[in-house]
Amino acid sequence: MNHLVTLTTDFGNGSCYVAAVKGVLLGINPQISILDLSHAIPPQNLRYASYFLQACVPFFPSQTLHVVVVDPGVGSERAILYVELGEQRLLVPDNGCWTGLIEQSLQLHRVIRVTERRYWRPQVSTTFHGRDIFAPVAAHLTLGVDPTLLGPETSSWVELPRPQLVVAGTSLTGEVVFVDDFGNLITNIPGHGFRQWDDRAVQILVGDTEVRQRVHHYAEAPPDLPVALVSSMNTVEIAVNHGSAARSLHAGPGMRVIIRLTERAM
Amino acid sequence: MNHLVTLTTDFGNGSCYVAAVKGVLLGINPQISILDLSHAIPPQNLRYASYFLQACVPFFPSQTLHVVVVDPGVGSERAILYVELGEQRLLVPDNGCWTGLIEQSLQLHRVIRVTERRYWRPQVSTTFHGRDIFAPVAAHLTLGVDPTLLGPETSSWVELPRPQLVVAGTSLTGEVVFVDDFGNLITNIPGHGFRQWDDRAVQILVGDTEVRQRVHHYAEAPPDLPVALVSSMNTVEIAVNHGSAARSLHAGPGMRVIIRLTERAM
Amino acid sequence: MNHLVTLTTDFGNGSCYVAAVKGVLLGINPQISILDLSHAIPPQNLRYASYFLQACVPFFPSQTLHVVVVDPGVGSERAILYVELGEQRLLVPDNGCWTGLIEQSLQLHRVIRVTERRYWRPQVSTTFHGRDIFAPVAAHLTLGVDPTLLGPETSSWVELPRPQLVVAGTSLTGEVVFVDDFGNLITNIPGHGFRQWDDRAVQILVGDTEVRQRVHHYAEAPPDLPVALVSSMNTVEIAVNHGSAARSLHAGPGMRVIIRLTERAM
């Protein structure tokens, strides 16, 4: 039995809602080991949550249970899903917040709609399913409840539109998919090949701004100048050493990023 | 022996003071399981702390020890209390920060003034009792020290004034008791009955602003419009879907909220 | 075997980078007990990190492993160090972030340059050594890997310049070394003796502003007035009760603080 339960929410760091979720989890199974992943997902930001999970979930030990409460539809008809994906287990609202994990080539074993009220708190509020449904269901799973008892298996769920990547002739057009706390812009443009290109042979545009320098790591970059490098997710990243690329370039998720190869690069 | 110790402070997320408290706890008893509830209680805000504890403490397993360091009087003559309340144990400054828990009908088993220096750090600073008194006392409790050794039992302690709720004829006058990280306004007006009232039969005022729509859950609300619903604490809540009611209505804790029933509702 | 691993980073509260580090740690050794110290070290602020570690690391149980990722030089030639200091173990970038601990009179047992790639992740990015080197090395250490296998012992490393303290005749000149989340200014001027001095016999200057009152604890201070007291690190501290001394005095780390004793104090 893996007793590790991770929490990812948009409740805010130090929110009483996070504390209540922890109380309910441990109140049902005091052996649970709770690990905070984040409570600072920007409110209701499903794309952020999706990228966040993609960047960390695959590293966890087999059968870890990841509880994700980024849930603008709380109280409505939206479903709650129990998912087995690769070696990980998820408990998520059916709003696409786990799309980033689907995009990776992890094997999807099963998806269950959580409908059986027996594992919920007796009184379910319309505003706080994290406490009233997610936490008690997660706790029961760690106690060994068979997931098939949670509800019926399903083969349809909500997915977010995937970020676009267009290859046309010698240009690659992608977008910023994530801005980290340093203000670095993470794109969906693959980073392989990037290291080999000749500096004069490639043009990089973030929106309308040209990023003229490429580096291997942050410290190599002159201060205040936007540079391109390969991110830890192996995609193209735009950064400003000791500064914020997001602020310098007025850029955020969804902003178009173009890489053009000139003849030299071919 | 329950080795679970929760921490609630106003030290700030990532404060070195929190880290020092954790070090002292584990330095005395490495078996302690530390759970962060919040370190983002607004500085010295006892009312916030009081509501916070009320919203989460009752869910924890029996004999959990909750250490609360929201302590503007640190170093002064204010006492430190060890409390057994319902199935929970608290270590709190005697400044009323646990009033919210007293208001609930949990049974108060005993309150002890923590005076015995044997369980404190040898040198006690005047500015950091979290590290020098709360942490070592909590650690010793988890080692099985009998609470009666901590100091004398007491029957008097500080309580915060309780939020007012006035029922006069057909109107209920309460107040905002808490603003969560989404900007939702939680009031002390009971939510039962609320769902039955006819929309045209009830008038809701937050300060001088009328809230014209009631919903069952957030997603039902049109964007940018303040709505009323029943909170997860089963009281009346004012929210703005994908926005902040606190900002929209310039409202915060203590603001008056009135619900008037017209003839239709009677 | 002590399975406690603490994390101190500048990744930001709730960063996906912190979550990834946790995943890698537990993915290699699910028995690790992870404790967050801080993820809110100001970005790339080595002096802050240094003071932070000094204020909390010494309290932890023997053989705790403290992983510190405040690492502006990530990807460059800067080394990574494994350190045994007093009863504590550290895994730190070689950039001086642990200087505060060296200043204390803890015994330095050994310092090893982490060079053996066998304990790293197979693919090492240039931007995220926290995930690709620090986490797997730490996890292997908790599994009992002999530190001498990590790389060669070394006797040279980077240290930050130490804050100045000048004693000249009857005046002590030091500086603000840390600002906490309350805005309190912690200096490097020793606090012993401070309590004995006669109020009229000592003049305290923070930059050009005179601090006219001394107190024993915060609650003793009138609101809005800067006061001096002895900090929890036993040095002189400047505070504003229910306010921020940093804001009131426009002060931050490095600002000069002078204490002059008049004849009365001698």
Describe the structure in brief.
3 copies of one chain form a homotrimer. With 266 residues, chain A is an alpha+beta fold.
Q: What can you tell me about this protein's structure?
A:
3 copies of one chain form a homotrimer. With 266 residues, chain A is an alpha+beta fold. Chain A has helices at residues 16-28, 46-56, 99-103, 129-142, 245-248; strands spanning 4-9, 33-38, 65-69, 80-85, 88-93, 108-113, 166-168, 171-179, 185-190, 202-206, 209-211, 213-214, 226-230, 235-240, 256-261. In chain A, strand 4 (80-85) and strand 5 form a beta hairpin. The longest helix of chain A has 14 residues, at 129-142. The mean pLDDT of chain A is 94. Chain A binds chain B through residues 11-20, 22-24, 26-27, 30, 34, 36, 43-44, 72-76, 78, 125-128, 131-132, and chain B through 2, 4, 6, 8, 13, 35-41, 51-52, 55-61, 64, 178, 180-182, 216-220, 229-232, 234, 237, 241-242.
Helices and strands in order:
The structure is a homotrimer of 266-residue chains.
Chain A: E1 4-9, H1 16-28, E2 33-38, H2 46-56, E3 65-69, E4 80-85, E5 88-93, H3 99-103, E6 108-113, H4 129-142, E7 166-168, E8 171-179, E9 185-190, E10 202-206, E11 209-211, E12 213-214, E13 226-230, E14 235-240, H5 245-248, E15 256-261
Parallel strand pairs in A: 1-2, 1-3, 3-5, 12-13
Antiparallel strand pairs in A: 4-5, 4-6, 7-8, 8-9, 8-15, 9-14, 10-11, 10-15, 13-14
